[in-house]
């Protein structure tokens, strides 16, 4: 007796949300963080960056659009897998020229943080979307 493996994405309609969110995550990373590649030197000799807080906040807020699109259609796995894959690939590509090798830790943190936050947000969106809508009372 042979058993077939269960695939999380059985058809194009189930794979599309993962591809859309992955492509969106890559594009939004490039838009918000891709152009800022230099560190800012402070007067005390320390450095910050290369990203400003507003850039990361902009990335997070704009990522809510594709995540909402996928999660509101009950494609939670697509939202989580796609967003995580997109941000992980983008951060790996962006940071892989670091000579210290510590970029692997940063990429891992991006991956784990994206999994955790996107899962929570996706379930919240799906739960809010599944609440019954109040109906207006019928008057005669």
From TrEMBL:
Keywords: Membrane, Transmembrane, Transmembrane helix
Organism domain of life: Bacteria
Entry keyword Transmembrane helix: yes
Transmembrane residue ranges: 12-33, 53-71, 76-95, 101-128
UniProt name for this protein: Integral membrane protein
Species of provenance: Streptomyces akebiae
């Amino acid at each position: 007796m042979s058993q077939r493996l269960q695939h999380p994405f059985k058809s194009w309609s189930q794979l599309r949300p993962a591809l859309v969110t992955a492509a969106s995550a890559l594009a939004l990373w490039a838009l918000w963080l891709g152009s800022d590649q230099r560190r800012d030197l402070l007067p005390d000799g320390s450095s910050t960056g290369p990203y400003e807080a507003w850039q990361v906040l902009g990335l997070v807020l704009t990522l809510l659009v594709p995540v909402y699109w996928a999660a509101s259609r009950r494609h939670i796995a697509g939202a989580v897998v796609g967003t995580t894959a997109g941000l992980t690939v983008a951060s790996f590509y962006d940071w892989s020229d670091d000579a210290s090798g510590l970029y692997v830790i940063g990429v891992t943190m991006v991956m784990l943080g994206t999994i955790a936050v996107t899962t929570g947000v996706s379930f919240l969106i799906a739960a809010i979307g599944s609440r019954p809508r109040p109906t207006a009372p019928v008057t005669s």
